[in-house]
Amino acid sequence: MPDEAEISSVCPTIGEAGIGRVVAGFYRRVPSDDVLGPMYPPQALAESESRLRDFLIFRFGGSDQYIQQRGHPRLRIRHAPFVLTQQARDRWVALMDQALSEAELPSAIETIMREFLQQTATFLINS
Ligand code: HEM
What does pTM read for this prediction? Predict the structure, then answer.
């Protein structure tokens, strides 16, 4: 796992727009994905995208707007309504890896994000 100083350097380095590019690339792939597509509400995808973007901006050292709007992240509890298998985790990570490659970020930052997101996804497996 990258250390806390590395994690919180991401948003100051690539900006909210850089994180927004990655999250947009991820959500662009969700609707047509056979595993993840059915898990996300199609009419509310834009709101889902904003929540993930704001959370990652906060977690990667930027604005705390996510906390002000949503409170403590409690990610395991918030994912409890969903069946998060190893397969769902692997697909989430695969789509995120594609979005990360496409965003053309500095390679050190890309590595920090990739490792943080992979390990958080593993931690969220609940069935
Ligand atoms: C392991 C695979 C994962 C799956 C299948 C998954 C699926 C979902 C789904 C279906 C939602 C509800 C859509 C919404 O209302 O926003 C959601 C919400 C969310 N997910 Fe995930 N997720 C995964 C991993 C992650 C990871 C790794 C993170 C963070 C690094 C994350 C962060 C969030 C956040 C911040 C929300 C919105 C929480 C809220 O404020 O209500 N998810 N996720």
Answer: 0.97
State how far the Cα of 103 lies from the Cα of 124, in Å rounded to an integer: 25
DSSP structural state of residue 39: G
When divided into structural domains, the chain yields a total of: 1
What does each of the 127 residues of the chain score in pLDDT, given as a tens digit?
Answer: 999 999 999 999 999 999 999 999 999 999 999 999 999 988 999 999 999 999 999 999 999 999 999 999 999 999 999 999 999 999 999 999 999 999 999 999 999 999 999 999 999 999 9
Domain encompassing residue 34 = 4-123
Does residue 112 have its Cβ closer than 6 Å to ligand 1?
Answer: no
Indicate whether residue 23 lines ligand 1 (CB < 6 A): no
Pocket test for ligand 1, best of 35, 45, 60, 75 (most atoms within 8 A of CB): 75
| CATH code, domain carrying 73 | 1.10.490.10
As to burial, measured by CB atoms within 10 angstroms (0-12 exposed, 13-18 middle, 19+ buried), residue 112 is buried
